[in-house]
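Researcher: Can you fold this with pyridoxal-5'-phosphate in place?
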Amino acid sequence: MSHSEQHAGVTDFTIGESVTTQTEQGLYIDPNALTAHLPALHYRDDALYMEQVSVAALAKHYGTPCYVYSKQAILDVYQAYTDSFSSLKHQVCYAVKANSNLAVLGILAQAGAGFDIVSRGELMRVLAAGGEAARVVFSGVGKTRGDIKYALTQGIGCFNVESISELTLINDVAKSLDKPAPISLRVNPDVDANTHPYISTGLKDNKFGIAHEDAATVYQQAAELSHIDIVGIDCHIGSQLTEVEPFVAALDKIIELVHSLRDKGIELRHIDLGGGLGVRYIDETPVSIDEFAEALLPKLSALGLTVFFEPGRSIVANAGILLTTVDVLKPTEHKNFAIVDAAMNDLIRPALYQAEMAVIPEMLPQNGLDTDGTQPWDIVGAICETGDFLAKDRLLSLATGDVLAITGAGAYGFTMSSNYNSRPRASEVMVADDRHQLIRKRETIEALYADETLWQAE
Ligand SMILES: *Cc1c(COP(=O)(O)O)cnc(C)c1O
């Protein structure tokens, strides 16, 4: 289906086509062209809508800053994964850390998703949202005795183990509960994911996983432990990968291992390829889920194992926006600053990963780039840090009180938010068709210090 069919009245924009114009003054992002790539968003009579709900109405009703997610956009990507791999026995384990709101988890659990978790807290969320522990894989480089005990008691599907020391700890806990622990080893295949260094995890120097060349030995050690049940093999090489080659390179290395384990009498039930598929935030051209499946399927079919995936970002990133209001316009001799009511505590990706995220207006300007009053703006928060920016040098026509939407904010947005500067965290809203619901209320300021006490010892 072409994009023009999805959004009647909008010019057809093809996948690889740029939605930006770089001028000497700054970057212009065409809001119509951008939203043509974002299934949940469109302009109707120049006003921005998510599904069938006006963004202006949402900002008015819930206030800003506010995260808004599209139920349909979440389900569509989940469905694309399960459809693309339908010829294989597979399980999509949504990576909870990308967006852990109960409503998001509940929608995915109902659709049949499993989950990838990295803490006891995330497991508790999954269970509270109606997910099944048996369909959960427990990742993460440092699990505590308490985490392991809780997960085993709940009937976790699999621990993805990252070291020998973790393996013996899991065996210990399993023994004390007299309950065998299902495990896979997270293998570090030493491939370059070609992504930002902070979200690259499959290189020798990273803290993650067990070195590819040591994996067979560790599997043999695992096989000798009394309360370890070896069920799979796992890797996760990084996040926001836009090419398929690193996935294929990692898979080849894992397959080699599966064969050598078979020769040693160790039979696995599943192979877990982790998450990491990238999304189009502005002009990126990530491999599609279809192309991803096409590249991997022939190799996977030959293996005869159940395939697990742990996608996070690709499922929720483009299902979400962060709504913010322009509070202050501060033109200076060298730069113009638009100070908005969202800040790095709400959305840290630009500051932490140098991520470029699109900022689009709630009301479309009449003549786009040529609009009178279009100027380069840095969109910044009110926090006392120079790193507190959401976007830099963007050509926009702004007035105080304008509502802006930061797109691609559904993943690693709210979950990475903090209370820095004693700022309450934003509210979250789910939209489905013409309905909307508050799925997390804005924190109160009192709640931020409710658990603190004055010093009273003297
Ligand atoms: C973060 C993470 C994921 C999800 O990665 P995305 O890039 O969001 O798909 C999956 N598995 C593990 C082990 C992770 O740490």
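Model: Folded with pyridoxal-5'-phosphate in place. Residues 95, 97-98, 116, 139, 236, 239, 274-276, 310-314 surround pyridoxal-5'-phosphate (CB under 6 Å).
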